[in-house]
Amino acid sequence: MDWLEELKNKYPDLQNINFVNMHRYQAIERAVYQKVKEWRPNVIVELGHGGGSLTVAMGLALKEVNPEGVIYSYDVSGVADYNISGATSNASMNIKERDLTEMVHFTEGDVFDTWIKNPCPFDLLLIDINNEWNNLYSIIIANSFINNQIKKGAKVLIEGGDPTHPRINQNTLDFFNNSCGEEIFTMKHLDGSGRTSISILEI
Questions:
Q1: Would you state the pLDDT for residue 83?
Q2: Pick from 82, 107, 131, 152: CA 20 to 30 A from residue 93's CA?
Q3: Does the domain made of 3-202 have the CATH classification 3.40.50.150?
């Protein structure tokens, strides 16, 4: 069975959703879409959107369950074309083609200089910025506003979590927690493999 058949079997109800389906993102698009439908957030903040695959998945889900919801998406490259393994995608175009323009607001710049320096309230935070545990700590723990939002119930999704991910996996998390002398984070891998995986992060 090839990966496409596996995907259809795993997500049988999501065959007609207009995902971007770029490269290896198919599984995590569907996982993120389902979580947005389950959690029904009002405000989503996305740090790092690349070609907009996950932005689209979240927007399509939000449009179904909370059409008044909004996504604030930040990326150092803005909405420039995004290339991966020979495929090209454009976040702005992907959003426009799916009639999500009024819901999604893009900001160009380093996320540490834009949103993290001046965060807004949120219900869901998705972090996909070449993640490392120290970076996640500086966003989620060291920033008191963001930390308080999560303690009040906001959800966090992060890029990574698959055992073969080079930086964000259970072994590196155990090492990080041990080096801190306490359990800072717990993680639940949702889907995807290697560098194209997605997990729930809790504090």
A1: 65
A2: 131
A3: yes
